[in-house]
Every structure is written in structure tokens, then in C-alpha cells.
Amino acid sequence: MSTQHLSRRFIVFLFGVLGLVSVCFLLMFYYFYNAQIADERTQASHSVSLLLKSSLEGAMLRRDLPGLRDIIGDLGRQEGVKEVMILNPAGEVRFASRQERLGQMEASIIQQFCPNCTAASLPLEPVTRFFTPSHGGELLRTFHPVRNKQECMQCHGSPDTHPVNGILVVDYDAAPIRQKGWMNILILAGAGVVAVLFSAWAAWWFMQRYVLQPVSRLHQASQALSQGDLTTRVPVRGSDEMANLATTFNHMAERLQHGHQVLQSREQFLQGLIDAVPDGVRVIDPYFQIVVANRAYAEQCGVASAESLRQQYCYKVTYQRDTPCPPSLRSCPLATLSAEQPTLKFMETLQRADGSLLSTEVYAARLPVTAGADLASECLVVESVRDMDKAVQYSHEQKLASLGELAAGVAHEIHNPLASVRIALQASDRILDTSQENVTELKDYLHLVDEQVEQCLDVTHRLMKLGALASGHPELVEVNTVIRETLSLLRFEREQKGIGESLQLDASNPRILAADNDLRMIILNLVQNAFHAMPEGGLLCVISRKQGASVEIRVEDTGTGIPDEILAHIFDPFFSRRHDQRGTGLGLTITRTLVKQHGGQIQVAEHAAGKTAFMLHFPDADDVQNLTQEAA
């Protein structure tokens, strides 16, 4: 559509320019042609006038007035001649081809010939002019002065006072001159029209072939490119500027296609990267719209895919609201995060579209779009959304994984008592076969069976405590008992690895408020990490003591230590540097989460090779101040 419009404009402009130029040339031709014809007629009339003047002068000198009248009459009857007159300097018609003109005063004719002239000041050179008489038509009038000579002084006086004896006036019909001029102009105009049409067609063909068609192809390719077809290209023909433009366009399209492919691959990589994160991840722009989200967050929201969350408003997805959340009622990272507070952690209840609720833990951080940008308006928010139900599930799965590692040790603990039970039962059977009176020995064997069965039950009881789901309510837990029972389950593994054990437990038997199995899992994870750090054997030392209003638990090993470069990451999810390279990377993460859930703290007290120590701090349940705070 645009190309056709440009073509029409070009044709109109071309015809306008050529038409204007043609009109100018025609006017110039008309002017110069008329001037040329007038000049030719003037020359002709000048020649005729000279001949007539010679004849008149001869007739005047001979006093042949009838012959003079005949000459003027014959001249007036010539084709194209309208009238011939001879005027004296005063303007009186002395001779005329029309008899009715004789004796008339025609001073106006002299004024046409020479305005404001007197008889003594008439010009001596002939003049030719076009004029329109009052009765209509157009004439070409020639004024030819008849000069005073020596031969005429007797009648006309001195040439000094009377330079002109009379004025010969010849009127020619100007219509044939104009007609001839117009005919030539029409012929020239027709030829000009043909030339203009041919020139316009040639120019239009050239523009259409070398300009409009390439521009049309570029326009079509640009439209296809704007609609997402990055494979479109423009055919290159020739080597002129339009061909160079098409080559440049194709190069630009190739760069765009390559850049789009790179962006797609990076977007796919980014999407795959965040999809691998088990927690929900979403990125929000300053206008509350979700820029990108991962598969886990889509599952948390109850939608089919993360792609459907893009460009959705965060308050619509999280709370099913139609307007942004009031910052005074909700923890909005966009309103809270700033340069002074770059991160934010809060609990949030996500409301799905079907009305179901999901308890989540959100960790939000600000991400500037460009370095140095106005962070109030050019800042994205990255949120990590953890499903609290999943967190409990991960903790329980870690427990089951740890229990799996205890299988060999537990089997050994149960195997020995069961072997003793079997021997005692076989001996009892022999006693009953030989004699039924030896009851004392039989009682001893049965007492041994009871002890071994009790030992198996104790091991099973400890194992069940460790594998049970966490209780929702804290209870008084004896720290020393948990440490002893948990380490007893690891005795076989410790002995197999050649690791010694040292227990330095507080004699006051400290207690804390916690879930019993959670504390067992904390001790189990720390001790197993110590075992993994001592593949060639070593010494494990577990210490418990009261320190002010808190209970400290210290787990030390003489293993390989923790390098400085990874110390800051050991509590990160899925970060593992185990010696056997089989870790899930969740042990210390879950340990820290469990410790914090019970109001405690965990830190690395020492991390050098040969001595690594983890320190746990819990509020002392027997401290009066802690009890008062708990009650409040």
C-alpha cells in the first residue's frame, strides 16, 4: 500500500515538474517566436517602406501626386496590408489607401509612435508595434519617418528645424501572424506532450524497476521480520545502492536471527537452571508482573506450566487480588527492599485459584537491572519460595537416608543378641531332652534370652525414635541420653572405620525444649559428617555442658577439616564436599533448619585439618529466665 502511494506521488510530481517546465518553455517560445515574426515583418515592412519612400520621394520631387496616390492605393490592396497612410508632422493624413481618411487629424497615431513628441523632435528611425484598434482585431503597425533632404528644403524648410517631412504608416493584419504562432505553439505543445509522456513513462519504469520494486521487497521483508519471521531475506540484484541496502538488510536480519537464537538458548538454559531448584523461584518487575518463574513455583500455585505465569501480576497469583497489596498489611518486597535492606525473609500463605492455601517461607532479594540505575524504579525482585510441607518432607527423607546408612550397624547390634538367643534356646532344648530336673541351668539360659531380647528391643526402640516424624509440640529432652543412644546406633560403623570415641557429658544432665527425634537427627547428621571426614580413622569427641542460660553441644573430629573457600557454603542446599562424593548436600541444611526451629544456633567453632568442631547452643530448659520467657 505504501509503495503504490509512493508511485502515485512520484507520477504526480513528475508530471507536475515536466508540465511546469513545458509551459515555461512554451511561453518562452511564444514570446521569442512572436518577437522573431514581428522582427521579420518589421524587416519586410521596412524594406517595403524604403521602396515606397523612394517611390514617394521621386513622386514628390516630380510633383507627381496622382502617381503617389496610386502607389499608396496599390500598396493598401496588397494581401495582409490593412491600411497605408502618410501623415505630416502635425498628424494630418495627406495620403491614404482609404479615401475617407484623407484630411483627418491622427495626432494619436504619432503619440503611439512617439509619445510627447513635437514636429521638431520626431525620431528618425522606424518603429514596429502590435496594437489593438477600437473596432477590434489586432494590427502590426509600422512607423517610418520620411526625412527632410536638401532637395526638399525649398518646400519643407531647413532640416534643422524640420527634420521629418512626414510619417509613412503601414498597418498589417496581425491575425495570420498570431495564427501561425499559435499553430507552431500547438505543434510544439503536442510534441512536448509526447516527449513528456515518454519521459514520464521512462522515468516511471526506471523508478519502478530500480527503486520502487526494491523498496517494496524491503517493505515486505520488514513486515515479515516485524511479525517474527526472522528467516526472511531480500533477494540481491545488481550492485547499486539498492542492492547494497538489501545486503545490509540481510546482514541485519542474520544478526537478529542469531541474537534471537542466542537469547532463546540462554532463556532455555536459565529456565532449565531455575527449574532444577526444588524451591519455587519467581522474578518480579517494578510493575508487579512476574518476569520468569520455575516449575516448582508453578506447582505451588497449582498451574500447569511456569510459562503461563509470565506477565501475570504477583498479587493476583499469590492472593487472588485485582489490585496491589497494601504494604501495611502484607510483606511486599517491592515496597520494602532498598539499598539499606537488600534482602527480606518472611512467611507467606499462598492462596491458589481453587481456594486452597499453602504455607510458604519466602526469601526475597533485590536485583538492579543495570549498574548505576535508579534502584527505586529499575530494580527486579527475586523470590525463593519454600513449601513448608516440602521442607518437612525433605527432613523426613533425610532421616530415612540416614537410617539407611545405619542399616549395617543396626543389623550387627541385633545379630549378636539373636545369636546368643539361638544358642541359649538350643542349650535349653538339650537340657529338656536329657533331663527335666536340671531347672536351675534352664533358668539361667532363659534369663540370658530375656536380656538379649531386651537388648534387641532397645535397639529397635532407639531406631524408631530416630525415624519417627517430628512432633508438633516441644518436649523436655535429656541431651545426654539422646547423645548416648544416637552414638550407640553408630557404634558398628565407627568401629569399622577405626574411629575412637570420647564422651564428655555434663553430670548435671542438661535438658532442652525440643522434639526428641529432631535432636537425634541433629546429632546423627553431625556425627556422620565427622565419620565422613575421617576416612582413615581418627577420634570423635562429643561434649555437652551448661553455659549460662544455654546448653552447649560440641561435636569434634580429627578429620580433613573444612577449606576456607567453601566454609561460607557448607549450609547451602545441595552443597556437598564429602570424601566419598555420595552426599545429597542437604544434611547440614536440614540440621541448621532444625536447630533454628528449636530456638538454637549452630556455628563452626574450628575448621582446621586435624580438628574440626561444630558448636550447638540451645536455651536451657531448666533455667528460670528461659522458663519465664517461654511462658510469656
Account of the 3D structure:
The chain is of the alpha+beta class and 632 residues long. The protein is built from 18 helices and 17 strands. The protein has helices at 2-61, 65-76, 107-113, 153-156, 175-226, 241-275, 295-301, 314-319, 333-336, 388-405, 407-434, 439-467, 479-489, 491-496, 516-532, 564-567, 587-597, 624-631, and strands at 81-87, 93-96, 127-131, 139-147, 164-173, 280-284, 290-293, 343-351, 357-368, 379-387, 475-478, 499-504, 511-514, 538-547, 550-557, 601-608, 611-619. The strands form 4 sheets. A 5-stranded antiparallel sheet has the order 2-1-5-4-3. Strand 3 and strand 4 (139-147) form a beta hairpin. The longest helix has 60 residues, at 2-61. It is rod-shaped and about 205 Å long. It starts with a helix and ends with a helix.
The end-to-end distance, rounded to whole angstroms, is 80 Å
Strand residue content: 15-25%
Helix content: 40-55%
Average residue pLDDT: 76
Helix-strand category: alpha+beta
Radius of gyration: 62 Å
Tally the beta strands: 17
Per DSSP, the total helix count is 18
Q: What does the largest sheet look like? A: 5 strands, antiparallel
> Looking across the biggest beta sheet, what order are the strands in?
2-1-5-4-3
Shape: rod-shaped
Poorly predicted tracts of residues: 371-376
Transmembrane segments: 12-33, 185-207
Domain HAMP: 209-261
Domain Histidine kinase: 409-622
Protein name: histidine kinase
